[in-house]
Specification:
binds adenosine monophosphate; alpha/beta
């Protein structure tokens, strides 16, 4: 496994490129089994190149940039075991040599949900993802469904700016009790982790309601909020249409049920995507299948 610490050293990827298409897996490190599943999925499509970069541009003032978990030795061990071809771990000064200047302005999909709760967050995400695409020049990139809006906002950038990168979405990996794996779960102490199970319970309650025939978005949102009573703050618990993340009063077609809630200082997000027809409800992906109607 190649360890690459600066953009200048990325020329070393050329030997890997000879063995198949490069598939980028961008991460912020503190890797867990969810990240490992992305690397394994990348291997099915080519040569995985994992980036580890805690991107200062996507954290707002007062957010957890300084205390975000960092454990490079453990990350490299996990990646070597999982079969990453190369790992790119740039220093912030190399990614932003003149500070954060030119940025990528996100499109309309960034307006609701986390975009509303974290102003500037998706401009920071798109700026670093665009830069990684230009530096690594992958044929494809893998992103987790866990960060649903992030994937949709990146999809919009790829489409609107014409990046020659194919996006691959990976399902969410969960602990046995349903909590989605997240680097931020390390912040949760025992009681907070127990309360945080309200997040997967909220999605399960919403899914039950929809499967029982509920189509009113407000009623589905209320079912989610009832399970989030132990959260210290609920940023949102909403149903949105896919893939545009538009507001919806009644559920129909592909919809995203999305939650963001805080437990102590830890902000957790999770979601569920469903295809809702009059009588039939089934799990679905976020990105429209190529050639398929949304
Ligand atoms: P992060 O390091 O949290 O920025 O995440 C890097 C990538 O891993 C993103 O594409 C995330 O969506 C994905 N990811 C994070 N948590 C999970 C999970 N529990 N299951 C699958 N993918 C995940």
């Amino acid at each position: 496994m190649e360890l690459i610490r600066s953009p200048a050293e990325l020329a070393r990827l050329e030997s890997l490129r000879g063995h198949g298409p490069l598939v980028l897996v961008p991460t912020m490190g503190a890797l867990h089994e969810g990240h490992a599943s992305l690397v394994r999925l990348a291997r099915e499509h080519g040569q995985p190149v994992v980036s580890i970069f805690v991107n200062p541009a996507q954290f707002g003032p007062g957010e957890d940039y300084a205390r975000y978990p960092r454990d490079l030795d453990a990350d490299l061990a996990l990646l070597a075991e999982t079969g990453a071809g190369a790992v790119f771990v740039p220093y912030a000064a190399a990614m932003y040599p003149a500070g954060v200047g030119v940025t990528v302005q996100p499109g309309p999909r960034a307006a609701p949900l986390c975009g509303a709760a974290r102003p500037g967050h998706f401009a920071g995400v798109l700026t670093v993802v665009a830069k990684l695409f230009l530096l690594v020049r992958p044929e494809a990139a893998v992103f987790g469904r866990k960060d649903a809006q992030q994937l949709l906002v990146i999809d919009e950038m790829v489409r609107d700016l014409g990046f020659p990168v194919r996006l691959i979405e990976a399902p969410t990996v969960r602990d046995a009790d349903g909590l989605a794996l997240s680097s931020r779960n390390r912040y949760l102490d025992g009681p907070a982790r127990r309360r945080a199970l309200g997040v997967p319970r909220a999605l399960a309650a919403a899914e039950r309601a929809v499967r029982a025939g509920e189509r009113g978005a407000a009623a589905v949102a209320a079912a989610m909020r009832a399970e989030l009573a132990e959260a210290d703050r609920v940023d949102y618990a909403e149903a949105r249409s896919l893939p545009d993340l538009g507001a919806c009063d009644r559920l129909g077609g592909r919809v995203l049920l999305a939650v963001a809630a805080r437990y102590g200082a830890t902000r957790l997000i999770d979601n569920l995507a469903l295809r809702v027809a009059e009588r039939r409800v089934e799990a679905c992906g976020l990105l429209a299948a190529p050639g398929a109607a949304a």
